[in-house]
């Protein structure tokens, strides 16, 4: 029996394993698997996107910095309380100058304070 170098034997085993694997999967099966992975990848991307969008919408009505000055009552167009899911509670006050709203911690109406 002829003795082969160890590298040749390892290469031979790898080659045999590749040939067996190639016999198990036909090109049609490989295409089906590619489609499956493509669909799964698409589903994962959509799930991540919708989760991120939902989290962004949760904080839409929240305040993270607050206006500390006073706002004249005649300038206030609308007052909206922040959502209960917000990390800090406050009010969003809309004025002609700040149509997107100013965040305030409390509102003083005719000398009474609400918080």
Automatic annotation (TrEMBL):
What is the name listed in the Swiss-Prot or TrEMBL entry for this protein?
Chemokine interleukin-8-like domain-containing protein
GO CC annotations on file: extracellular space
Supply the InterPro entries for this chain.
Chemokine_IL8-like_dom (IPR001811), Interleukin_8-like_sf (IPR036048)
| Biological processes annotated in GO | immune response
Tell me, what's a Pfam family for it? IL8
Parts of the chain that traverse the membrane? none
The molecular function terms in GO held by this entry are: chemokine activity
Domain of life according to the entry: Eukaryota
Q: Which organism is it from?
A: Hemibagrus guttatus
Domain (Chemokine interleukin-8-like): give its ranges: 60-104
């Amino acid at each position: 029996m002829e003795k082969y170098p160890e590298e040749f034997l390892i290469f031979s085993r790898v080659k045999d394993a590749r040939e067996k694997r190639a016999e198990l999967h036909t090109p049609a099966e490989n295409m089906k698997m590619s489609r499956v992975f493509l669909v799964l990848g698409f589903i994962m991307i959509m799930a991540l996107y919708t989760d991120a969008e939902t989290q962004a919408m949760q904080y839409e009505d929240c305040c993270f910095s607050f206006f500390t000055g006073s706002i004249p009552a005649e300038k206030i167009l609308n007052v909206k309380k922040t959502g209960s899911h917000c990390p800090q509670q406050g009010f969003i006050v809309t004025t002609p100058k700040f149509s997107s709203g100013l965040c305030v911690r409390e509102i003083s109406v005719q000398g009474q304070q609400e918080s």
